[in-house]
Amino acid sequence: MNVDNRSPLKQRILRSDGVRFMAPLIVAIIAISLYTNGENGNFLGSDNLKNILLQVSVLGIIAIGQTLLIAAGQLDLSVATLAALAGVIGATRINDGGSELWAVLLVLVICALFGLLWGILVAGLKIPPFILTLGGTSLFASIALRISKSSPVPARERFEWLGRAKVFGVQTPIWYFLIVVVVAAFVMRYTRFGRHVYATGSNEEASYLTGIPTARTKVLCFVISSTLAGFAGLVAMARISTGDPRNGSQLALQAIAAVVLGGGTLAGGRGSPIGTFIGVVLLAVVQSALTFNNVQTFWNDAVFGLVLIFAVVVTAIGDLRRRRFGARPILASLIRRSESVRVSSEK
């Protein structure tokens, strides 16, 4: 008999990710927004709400890539400097007389190849991704500074469709962020690859023994994450028409914080694009609220640290509650679902 069918409704609700991780974040977003709007009535205005999403669109795209990696038990600290390098390459290509489309394709291919390299080294040589990508952080930063000669590279008001155009009154970076979230959520929830990602992060050895291609799954996660980082870098460059080699140095840590806020765990096996989206929005709302309340800027890092600590505590409480009320083993559930999909396809 399926354990879920025997479980009381209350237990199933308490075990759900929506209650354990997302609901507290939504409550925090609402509380902060209402308080700040009470102090300044413009906070919940449509212009400010769109500005909040615009400011974190680049971070959000990178964070979705990190969500896949963290769910698979991996990590990439080099995405911030890779995004900066992508912006520099894109702007330099335009200055050399290249077309916008070819510049975008070139950058995405280069970033995908870097992700492929990380994935092969991690999956094939068992190199710890933390150390490997930490080295990549310095490597990409140095390359970006070398190409740009340590100065921002102007893009001559190009790439308007990528960073400054509006669709239905909303700027394109917001649309790109939302599209990435929706596509990633569908892939993680309804495809075999998504199930393999969770299974690999939950227990790589057991997943491999059941026939799941864990190495290929990790490589694909690195490729997707690096490609999204490159795209985010292009969007950031297009917004300001400049490829800045020092742009977004804190994006990697902020992306990890957003994933953890949304219920991900660095141990792997858990993470949700929708949860990450809510985590990104919370970080944006907090930062905007500090600005609206005229809080001195040096408090931003302190508040960011407190929010991250809050996320870790909430995650720990959710895990304790889940163990208390019981839950199906994640890996077993994913394997059963994979087998059912395989049997259906064979029929």
TrEMBL record:
Does the record carry Disulfide bond as a key word? no
Q: What is its main location?
A: membrane
GO cellular component: a single term: plasma membrane
- What GO terms are given for molecular function? transmembrane transporter activity
InterPro entries from the UniProt entry: ABC_transp_permease (IPR001851)
Membrane-spanning segments: 21-37, 52-70, 77-95, 101-123, 130-148, 168-188, 219-238, 250-267, 274-292, 298-318
Q: Where in the cell is it found?
A: Cell membrane
Name recorded for this polypeptide: Unannotated protein
Query: What organism is this sequence from?
Result: freshwater metagenome
